[in-house]
Amino acid sequence: MTLVALTIAGSDSGGGAGIQADLKTFAALGVYGASAITALTAQNTRGVVAIHTVPADFVTAQVDAVFSDLAVGAVKIGMLGSADVVAAVATALDKWKAANVVLDPVMVATSGDRLIGEDAVAVLKRVLIRRARVVTPNLPEAAALLGTAVAADERAMAAQAEAICALGAQAVLIKGGHGTGAESVDLLLDSGTPTRLAAPRVATRNTHGTGCTLSSAIAAGLAKGEKLDDAVRHAKDFVTAAIAAADQLGIGHGHGPLHHFHAAWR
Prior knowledge:
alpha/beta, UDP-N-acetylmuramoyl-L-alanine:D-glutamate ligase, 8 helices, globular
């Protein structure tokens, strides 16, 4: 049977992040991608111009349509936009007994534009985090979830991962891409001691969609039956290679996208 992953996220008209990045990632990693669009964004590599949130009942209709027909092996959740949409997604996950849920708490675009309201963040913390197999915040998102300062070192990252687990998350991957230093260090807390995942930091401004790509790559791995730590390692390897190849593309005039098909395009 063909492996299937579902992305529930916003659309990026520029093609670098959101639904578009997720579907590219699924395809690059050999998984069939389905989608439920939660918001339409008018954006490009320079920033977000406008956002149109999809009504919650229509988000539910999309998710129901996918689950009622396709054998979904994993779910990636990205931009949700509104509190009503967050609640609707949580209800749908329960209805379909969704497994292998990867929650990327998207709050701010690479350009700095905010993508979710404070009321929606509160509902996400209350009803969605505990339904996820893993939550994947970057450094600013982890701080926003906890109402604290951005972690300045790995000890602080580990403490914030534990605090997010205390909110009900089964596992937390705090991404260190917004940090400094020669390495980009992520910390995975599943049980026990956090696992440190490091990769050389790539000097490029073309990092649009990095978080979306990582979380969807994890979902692809889980859909394949990989254990969480293996799925995370493979996803980080994929994203690192896609960032390293990003400058081969010439897309836009701002923060360009990753090269999702670096292994296939010649």
